[in-house]
Each structure stands twice: as structure tokens, then as C-alpha cells.
Hints:
Strands 1-2 form a two-stranded parallel ribbon. By secondary structure, the chain is mainly alpha-helical. It has one domain: Hypothetical protein, domain 2 (Endonuclease III, domain 1, Orthogonal Bundle). Helices cover 52% and strands 2% of the residues. It is built from ten helices and two strands, in the order ααααααααβααβ. It holds the Pfam family Adenine_glyco.
Amino acid sequence: xxxxxxxxxxxxxxxxxxxxxxxxxxxxxxxxxxxxxxxxxxxxxxxxxxxxxxxxxxxxxxxxxxxxxxxxxxxxxxxxxxxxxxxxxxxxxxxxxxxxxxxxxxxxxxxxxxxxxxxxxxxxxxxxxxxxxxxxxxxxxxxxxxxxxxxxxxxxxxxxxxxxxxxxxxxxxxxxxxxxxxxxxxxx
Length: 188
């Protein structure tokens, strides 16, 4: 049996996410936008709560089509707030629409969300060497800077802790602990 990072416990959804997605370098703008929105929803919640609702969000948010989300009106917002499988947080729901607009502006100005993000680590994943889960930081100087820059661009729910979790999830930072079978995976 493979040893995993302790945070994924015994939950099958969590284990599959850990084994197949978390820490894998992600470069596709569409996939990054989806992950970004999901990470911003996590603020104040556990990741498993958001992860279990991912399919409901895909269906409700037009498969995370930023162009469509950026155009959502008050009627669509209200229908999302009534959706039985989504998190009922008014500020987060408004932030989804607002962040889609900011995302499109960023892409228009810089060309690629992926390239803009990856520049913070010179386009190479950072491979850390932590032994214990308790050694893994919740934020870093890079996440502080990225958080500040996202806020300057108008993004919401982008505190440094949220952004560091996003960096880990998208593989910008590989924080698999040293006894995890995913530690030192081939980074492409």
C-alpha cells in the first residue's frame, strides 16, 4: 500500500485527488481557472467540502467558462444562491463572477493566466523536502507576493494562505512529504 501525505486520510475522493491531481504541474488556463475558483471557495472551509461539490459547480457554472460566468446577471446569481449543492455564501458567489471578470482582464493584458502565474517561480515547480505535514508552511514570501498582485488586479478571496494552497494544488509547489509515494515525482 502506498504511503500518502497525511492530510488526505482515508477518504477515497481525497486519496484520488492526492494521487492524481495535487502537486501535478498544471499549465492549462481553463483548468487553472477552475482550480482557482474552487480554491477561493475553500476560504474558511475544508478542501474536502469544496472537492465534493466540484461536479455541482461544474454543472452550475457552465463548466467554469469564464466568458459566461463574467456575464452572469442578478437572476443567475440568485439561481446559484438557491442551488441545493453549492455553498451558500453571498460574498463568495459574487466573487466567482467578479473573479471571472478579473481573470478575463488579466488574460487580455498578459495573454495567459498560466504564464502569468508560473513566472512567480521562474516557470519551474518548487520541490520542497518536508518530512512531516506540520513542517509544510501555510504561506510563503511567493504566495504573499502573488496574493498582493492578485488583489491589485481586483481579485477577491485571494489571501496568502488561499494562494499557497492554490500553488500546491496546481503543482507550482510540490509539498508532498518525503515518505509519500508522490514525493519527487517526475516534474515535467
